[in-house]
Design a protein that fits this description.
264 residues; alpha/beta; 3-stranded parallel β-sheet; 7 helices; 20% strand
């Protein structure tokens, strides 16, 4: 999961053009809430089957101190355990470095209990690259089934439906694997009062780069493969154009306006 600046707030950049994640209000990325929801549904269905399987949902987040709020939100939704990776050296990391840190954290978790499924959202609401799940699959040596709008399980088999611009694909895989889901996969649940209270007693670990065996030179802005060269503030909103139908030409004027903007 990712801790991101609140899209409804005034988001800012640091002097080096990296996103300010400390001086702004942040939250658990809405698109990652769908990943949490699908993880919880998978666990619930596995426990309710003819041959019940007990599983654990671990919420993993890399980010600054405030990112702990994102982990707590997942615990309140129903996750069993939280892991927060925090280290000053991580600031400014791009998707490549982020996937490295996440992969090492997942390997550390797997050393304790085998990891059958790594679930993520469609994309982050701040960068929107949609590449971290694929990078994770490569680093972990696992197959990937990504951008799922529908997820079905039968034993260790996973089948998803992926909706494209021109076609819908059905893709299958065998666990362990990496799965990412879209905002069409099912509405994320709201934390209940019971869930909020229960989250306070759930295990929550904090790891640094040294805990993961990652050298500081492999992460951060200095190791990034991508860089934001410049940013431009969003222009202020201007008054809209009003089309009046005083002489019966309104429909034509509206059509011409929409065509000029390439809406039709």
């Amino acid at each position: 999961m990712k801790y991101v600046p609140d899209a409804t707030a005034d988001r800012q950049f640091e002097p080096d053009n990296t996103v300010d994640r400390v001086g702004v209000d942040g939250l658990l990325s809405e698109l990652d809430e769908y990943g949490v929801e699908q993880s919880l549904q998978i666990k619930e269905k596995a426990a309710a089957g003819d041959d019940p399987v007990e599983s654990t949902v671990t919420a993993l987040c890399v980010g600054p101190e405030k990112a702990l709020d994102a982990v707590r939100k997942a615990l309140q939704m129903g996750a069993d355990k939280g892991v927060h990776v925090i280290d000053d050296a991580i600031a400014g990391s791009d998707a490549v470095a982020t996937s490295l840190v996440l992969a090492k954290a997942i390997e550390k978790l797997g050393a304790e209990t085998p990891v059958d499924l790594v679930v993520g959202g469609l994309a982050s609401t701040d960068a929107g690259m949609s590449v971290v799940p694929a990078m994770l699959a490569e680093r972990l040596g696992l197959p990937q089934v990504t951008l799922a709008s529908v997820v079905e399980f039968q034993g260790d088999q996973v089948r998803i439906k992926r909706d494209g611009d021109t076609a819908t694909e059905v893709i299958g895989g065998t666990m362990p694997l990496v799965l990412s889901v879209t905002d069409q996969s099912g509405e994320a649940r709201y934390p209940s009062f019971k869930g909020i209270m229960a989250a306070k007693k759930k295990p929550l670990e904090t790891w640094s780069l040294s805990d993961l065996g990652v050298d500081a030179s492999e992460v951060g802005a200095g190791a990034a493969w991508t860089e934001v060269i410049d940013t431009t503030a969003r222009p202020p909103r201007t008054a809209g154009e009003i089309v009046k139908d005083e002489d019966g030409t309104g429909a034509k004027a509206l059509t011409e306006f929409l065509a000029s903007k390439k809406f039709i």
